[in-house]
Amino acid sequence: MHPTLALRALAPLSESDVDELAAGRLVIRDNAFGEDLARRSREVLLGWREQGRLDAAGVGRGGKIARIRSDLTAWVQPDDPELTEVFVLFEGLRQGLTRDLRLSLQRFAVQAACYEQGAAYGPHFDAFRGDHSRRVTAIWYLNPNWRPEWGGQLRAHLPEGPVDVLPRLDRLVIFLSEQVKHEVLPALAPRFAMTSWYRGAEPLPLLPDPRFG
Ligand code: OGA
Ligand code: NI
């Protein structure tokens, strides 16, 4: 029998966490959402992979993305019964980030990703300055006993130089989507993660082009 698991609330960001994010660095939280939930979520994604529910990232988007990333992904639906608790925790994180960063983060989308057989994701930003879309990236890793020799590090290009983060079970990494260039080094063992992108207000609506009256 499993004891009933209370969903844990993430501790608020400290002033120094906020300063780190604003300076284009990472905030890393271990034991973020709970190891048991991380293990169960990994099992869910293993099932999705078996069922063919994960697709090559970037397919159907002109192939441009496919050239820099070779992982398999799926969008997680808010009403997915297998991952309800994960959604609740990412929603709690949205509220915490809105409060602590004083940003109006109104929406978020969660993507599951699996890297294997040397899959990687080249250097990129998750958002471009001024497009008012993705403001904050939060990546939750689902890999028990990850060994450094398996690669698969998140390499973040910080103002002082690159840092590598291992994709350890129940580790959460947070950064500002427009500020931190990052990449995933080739992973030699199956590497699972869920990424939530928090968005601000809608971009301004497109104004009619005056040339066409
Ligand atoms: C992404 C990404 C990094 C990681 O999905 O945009 O950069 O460590 N993921 O999984
Ligand atoms: Ni990214």
Task: Describe, in plain words, how this protein is organized in 3D.
It contains four helices and eleven strands. The longest helix has 18 residues, at 84-101. It is 22% helix and 28% strand. It has a seven-stranded antiparallel β-sheet with strand order 1-9-6-11-4-3-2. Strands 5-10-7-8 form a four-stranded antiparallel β-sheet, with no helix packed on it. Mean pLDDT is 88; it is low at 1-5. Strand 7 (154-158) and strand 8 (161-165) form a beta hairpin. It has 213 residues and is α+β, with helices and mostly antiparallel strands. It is globular and about 40 Å long. The chain has a single domain (3-203), classed as Sandwich (Jelly Rolls). The structure holds N-oxalylglycine (OGA) and nickel (II) ion. Residues 124, 126, 182 line the site of nickel (II) ion.
